[in-house]
Structures are given as C-alpha cells and as structure tokens.
Amino acid sequence: MISIIGTGRVGSAIAFLCTSSGLDDVLLVNRTEKKAIGEALDLANTIPSNSSISVMGTGNYSKIANSDVIIIAASIGEHSAARTDMMSENTLMIKKIMQDIAKFAPESKILIVTNPVDVLTFLASKYVIQKNTIGVASSLDSSRFRFLLAHQFGTDQSHITDALVMGEHDDSMVPIFSHAKFGGTNVTELLDQNQIDTITSKVRFYWKDLRSTKGSSVYGIAKNTFDIAKAIINNKSLETPASVLLKGEYGFENLCMGVPITVNKHGIVKIHQIPITQNEKDQLCKSANIIKNNITQAEKLLS
Fold it and tell me: I need a labelling partner for 91 at 20 to 30 A (CA). Which of 36, 113, 180, 195 fits?
C-alpha cells in the first residue's frame, strides 16, 4: 500500500499516477478528511479495469499501518522567496506526522516532498530507519537540468545523459556539468563559462518561472516521486539523485542533501560517490553549510 499524506495538487497528482497505472492500493490522508475522501472518489475512476487496487481517503493516521511507502506531500503553505520560507510551520508539521508514522508504520519507506526538503528529510530520519527516509527533489532538479541542456543544444532530452544536480534543493543547488553529456560528449567541452553560469542560474531559479506563470511545480515533482515509489513497490533498482542522510560521503555528515543513490524495496541500498571537479566540490561545500544552518534553526524550533 502507498499512503500519501497531503491531498493538495502535488499529493493528488502523485496519487493519480499510482492509481491510473494500477501500481498499488492508495490511501490518501488529509487533515481535512472530507477532502481526502473526495479525491479518492475521483481517483477511483482512474483505476484500470483489469486492476484489483483500491483507493480510499481518511483523516485517521492509524490506517497507514502496513504501508510499504508513505509519501509526505503536505504543507502549511507555499514559499514565495525561497523554499525555506515555510520552514517554521512545516518543521512543526513534520514532527507531528513523523510521530504518527513512527507509531503506526515505522518500517515504511518514507518519501519527503514537502519543502524545505533537505531539512525535513533530516528531521524525519530521526524517527524511523534512516535508510528508509528519502527526500525527493534533486531528481526534479536534474530533470530541469536535462531540459535546459537540451534547449541549449537544440535537441530533445533523450540526447542528454547523466545530467545530475546535487546539494540543496534551493538556490545553492549544484548542477554537475562535469558529469553531463550530449550525444556522448561531455557538455563542458561544448559550453563556455558564460553559458555554464547562465544554465546554472536557470536551474536554480526554474521554480520562479513556474511561480510567475502557473503557480508551482506539480507534474514534475509528482512524476519523480512516482518513479521512486514504483521502484520500491516493484523492487526494481533505480539510480536517482535524492536527499539522504550522509555519513562522510563527499566529506559531509549529519545532514541530508541531494546525491546520487540506488533505491529498491529495501530503501537506500547505495550512495554513489562520483568524481566531481574542485569547483563543484567548493559549491557543494557552500550548499552543505547552508543546509546545516537551516537544520540548526529547525532544531531550535523543536527544542
């Protein structure tokens, strides 16, 4: 069973991908139970005719028991200047949610979508098995990086490979140009520094273009979250960047940040340490320090 906490636009979009593909039973949990029930009634009509899965809505956290995957997409509000805008409110919210998860479904794989995702993933990892706690965001940033590189080269996205973004899911995220390729050629051989700087800025502030045009990202984060949930449910190994707790990898520890991992039904089975340039290491260090400072602020709120 997949439990989705928060039935706003993102949570409902993730649920739609799960039900319409017949992936697994879906439980929608919302603080306003009526909203969860209504979404479930609608989503029930997307289940394939040859599928035996079900979907239901509730406000009762005890029903998440036996969930294979729990996706946290709930939020108190939306950010306007940075993803840390709602840190205070969402920090208190994540504590309550994780207490319920620890009580009713401590063995579940937890996918954190709510921002600031690196901070909340770190806090969530204190309540359940650490290898089961994954922040979904860097895969979305990497999708945006791939899209922007394809646009730069006037090609389709299938010709861009290994486009990876690491670090914070916010303004200090680090596109790893040394890893990305166009038609098998490293993009650093095809771009000048001005182009690299421009694309870096566009990756970091992609969300602002979305905010000024449609409001916020829905489908991108929903699809990237669904891909990880699908890998866990079907026990298929998936290599993807995600925010996870580091214990010395890349020289960092006691924080969560975006790095390449492999995930399957057992949770995080490997953190990949890929070679990166010194400049990328320096940027990653700055990003890590920002995350650490935000974690410190969040922990003060909870103390």
Answer: 36
Residue 227 buriedness (CB in 10 A; 0-12 / 13-18 / 19+)? middle
Sign of CA dihedral 26, 30, 36, 39: negative
- Are 15 and 43 within 8 A, CB to CB? yes
Q: Are 77 and 86 spatial neighbours (Cβ–Cβ below 8 Å)? A: yes
> What CATH number was assigned to the domain covering residues 137-303?
3.90.110.10
Greatest C-alpha distance within the chain? 55
CA atoms within 13 A on the CB side of 152: 23
pTM more than 0.90:
yes
CB–CB of 174/280 below 8 Å?
A: yes
Q: Which helix H or strand E contains 96, and what residues bound it?
A: helix 87-104
Distance (Å, whole) CA 298 – CA 256:
13
Please answer whether residues 246 and 252 qualify as being in contact, where contact means their C-beta atoms are separated by less than 8 angstroms.
yes
pLDDT > 70? residue 102 = yes
Exposure string over 194-216, b if 16+ CB within 10 A, otherwise e: eebeebbebbbebbeeeeeeeee
What is the CATH architecture assignment of 2-136? 3-Layer(aba) Sandwich (3.40)
Estimate the crossing angle of helix 33-43 against helix 9-20, to 10 degrees.
Answer: 30
What are the strands, taking DSSP E only, across the chain?
Answer: 2-5, 26-29, 55-58, 69-72, 109-112, 133-135, 160-161, 165-166, 174-175, 181-182, 185-186, 238-247, 253-264, 267-271
Domain range summary for the chain, segments of one domain joined by +: 2-136, 137-303
Q: Kindly report, residue by residue over 60-75, the tens digit of the pLDDT.
A: 999 999 999 999 999 8
